[in-house]
Write a structure and sequence with these properties.
mainly alpha, 2 domains, elongated
């Protein structure tokens, strides 16, 4: 009975971890969306469109927070606000609530693209080249972020394995020697050891998660 309960807890924990990673993979990367938007602006301006026309044609293809922000900028322009002012409001909003953990755009990424848009709107020269440079810079940041994530994934996997080993060991011992597991779970000393080991495992997961987020910032 105890072995079955422990196995169910282990399976449930593994399911939560997999679900978390699946949800994280399904999220739209704002930085990649900004790079795609900048590349579209470059192609459209090279084809003769204005910045506002290029942004209007790109808006339906964008998703996530970038799509919402671009739609808000275009709506402000339609209401009579200048493109310079509307995009500056976008950059200010990104600076105020730029929390990458909640899927918001990085303020530095938005500022880079907004600076190119404002420059293009003000001077009207070198539009494709400016937006191409922004797209390349943002994609370089995406690749660097992916490389860092790949380097930290091994550490995360090691922590998960090390935390799972005690649970697997308890399950195996409960199958091989039920008397041993009964002594572990039904004696004061055994329960103390189980609680201490569980707290250490939990602490390792929390510290590893904190360090990973710190590196990926």
């Amino acid at each position: 009975m105890n072995a079955a309960a422990i196995a169910l807890i282990a399976i449930a924990g593994l399911g939560l971890v997999l679900r978390r990673h699946t949800r994280a993979a399904a999220k739209v990367d704002p930085r990649r969306e900004l790079a795609s938007f900048a590349a579209h602006l470059a192609r459209s301006c090279r084809g003769g469109l204005t910045v506002v026309e290029a942004a209007s044609s790109a808006a339906p293809r964008l998703s996530g927070v970038v799509g919402e922000s671009v739609s808000e900028v275009l709506s402000a322009v339609d209401r009579g606000l200048s493109l310079d002012t509307a995009t500056r409001h976008w950059a200010d909003a990104a600076l105020n609530d730029g929390d990458r953990a909640r899927g918001r755009s990085d303020p530095g990424d938005v500022e880079l693209l907004v600076s190119a848009i404002r420059f293009a709107d003000r001077y009207g020269a070198g539009l494709p080249e400016a937006f191409d440079s922004v797209a390349v810079a943002l994609m370089d940041r995406c690749e660097m972020q992916q490389e860092v994530a790949a380097l930290t994934s091994q550490a995360r996997a090691s922590v998960l394995v090390l935390c799972a080993l005690p649970v697997i060991g308890v399950v195996m011992v409960s199958v091989i020697s039920p008397a041993t597991i009964r002594a572990l779970l039904w004696s004061p000393m055994g329960l103390t050891l189980v609680v201490a080991a569980s707290l250490l495992d939990l602490g390792a997961v929390l510290v590893s998660s904190w360090m990973t987020r710190l590196v990926l910032r």
